[in-house]
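Record format v2
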Amino acid sequence: DAGVIQSPRHEVTEMGQEVTLRCKPISGHNSLFWYRQTMMRGLELLIYFNNNVPIDDSGMPEDRFSAKMPNASFSTLKIQPSEPRDSAVYFCASSRGTSGDTQYFGPGTRLTVL
Amino acid sequence: AQSVTQPDIHITVSEGASLELRCNYSYGATPYLFWYVQSPGQGLQLLLKYFSGDTLVQGIKGFEAEFKRSQSSFNLRKPSVHWSDAAEYFCAVGVVNNDMRFGAGTRLTVKP
C-alpha cells in the first residue's frame, strides 16, 4: 500500500495568495483527518471527515480555511487568503473509521507564507 | 474533557541507556492509547497501541508501554536506546467518534 499521499511536500507563497493542499487517503479507509503542526501550538486537529462527510470542523481556525472531500480518495484543504501565521506543517491522516482505530499519517506539507 | 499530558518537553539520554517517556491521560471511559514517533521532516509513525487486555504492550523498534489505570498513565519504555531513536514522541488517546487527542510531544536527544 502506498500510504497516505500528500502534495505538494513544500509550498512557498506570498501573503494573500490562495493555497490548496491535497491528500489521498489509504484505500479502504473511511475517515480522513487534517492536522496542523507548529512549534508554538503543537499538533492541532483542524477537521475530520467520515465517509466523505465533515464530522467536526471546530479546529478550523477561521473562515479563511476550508476543506472538502469530494470522494473517498481525495481531499483538499484550502487557505484563502493566506497569511504568514498560517506557516506550518499540515498533515493528513486516514483510518478505517471505527472508534480507536489507528490513524496513518502522510508525510506532511510544509507551508511557508511570506 | 479528554486530554493527554506529556510532562517532559525534552529528554536527553546516552546511547545504550534505558528510556522512559511519561504520558498521562484524562478520559472518562476505558481509553484507546497510542504512541507515535516523528523523525525530523517526517510524518507520524505508530509505535504501539493499547485497546484492552494485557496492560503491557509491545511495539516496533523494541519499544513497549504499560497502561496503568490507577495512575491514568501510559508510559513508553525502551531498555537500550539507539542513536536512531532520536525523534519526537507523541502520546495520544482515542476518543469516541474516531477522534484522537495528542500530547504536546517529548523530544528525545541521544548522546553518543
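The radius of gyration of chain B is 13 Å.
Chain B touches chain A through 21 residues (CB under 8 Å).
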